[in-house]
Amino acid sequence: MDKIAIERLNLHYGDSHILKDVSMAIAGRGATAIIGPSGCGKSTLLKSLNRMTDLIPRRRISGRVTLDGEDVYGAMDVNLLRKRVGMVFQRPNPFPMSVYDNVAFGPRTHGLRSRPKLDAIVEKALRDAAIWGELGDRLRKSALSLSGGQQQRLCIARALAAEPEVLLMDEPTSALDPISTAKVEDLVSRLKTEYSIIIVTHNMQQAARVSDTTAFFLLGEMVEHGETADLFSAPRDRRTEDYITGRFG
After folding, report:
1. Helix intervals (H) in 35-113
2. What is the pLDDT of residues 211-220, one digit of tens each?
3. Which residues are bridge partners to 7 per DSSP?
4. Of the candidates 29, 9, 28, 31, which has an alpha carbon nearest to the alpha carbon of residue 19?
5. pLDDT tens, 124-137?
């Protein structure tokens, strides 16, 4: 069974039709890249998967999104959904608190109070995010004092601490320098062996480096979705080819 199945998903904000009859499946492990020009619905698709679009006024949605076969928009508890489907945003957004408290925030929210267990979760999450070596002796420091790249990896650790099954990443390196970008890409390549990762990116080279499958979106429609190597070397749709080769627009 696919981890996430999207079936004929349509989403409107007021009179604007943002996602148009989108259907695709996401595997239980691996990385899927979502590419396409600005305003084509990529980020909206991500936010629809953990119901962050619920917060937008005049939002209307039809179709189905299932997680392990369960309808996300049915009786599923939204807090549980967002624990299972974590998200990392375009710009680092650490909370104005210590490194430790940032990572422990999710487990505490879900009722965990044991200090030894929290300590173990914080260390594991920071190790999984490949930043324990840099922050292991700075747990009481303010997260706001970290560099941009460190803040983003801390935000990834914060998401991992909730033990998600799916990790959504909305252009996670667009605000980072090349060295920090490379570290995050290495992290994605490692984490995709354990998680289902869906990453929105404008960077074609990044999509080719980190993803197993890629979906190209245009004007709210999914034009094509397939193995990354195949889509980049022999796209089936001329619009995909034009976008990848820079002839688009």
Report:
1. 42-49, 78-84, 99-109
2. 999 999 999 9
3. 64
4. 9
5. 999 999 999 999 99
Residue 74: is it exposed, middle or buried by C-beta count within 10 angstroms (0-12/13-18/19+)? exposed
The residue among 138, 136, 160 whose CA lies nearest residue 85 is: 160
The tokens for 216 are: 């190209």
pTM over cut 0.70: yes
Three-class secondary structure assignment of the chain: CCCEEEEEEEEEECCEEEEEEEEEEECCCEEEEEECCCCCCHHHHHHHHCCHHHHCCCEEEEEEEEECCEECCCCCCHHHHHHHEEEECCCCCCCCCEHHHHHHHHHHHCCCCCHHHHHHHHHHHHHHCCCHHHHCCCCCCEHHHCCHHHHHHHHHHHHHHCCCCEEEEECCCCCCCHHHHHHHHHHHHHHCCCCEEEEECCCHHHHHHHCCEEEEEECCEEEEEEEHHHHHHCCCCHHHHHHHCCCCC
Residue located via tokens 């309808």: 71
CA 25 – CA 40 distance, rounded (Å): 19
- In three-state secondary structure terms, 170 is strand
Residue 52: burial class (beta carbons within 10 Å; 0-12, 13-18, 19+): middle
- Residue 226 CB coordination number (10 Å): 16
Say which amino acid occupies 179. I
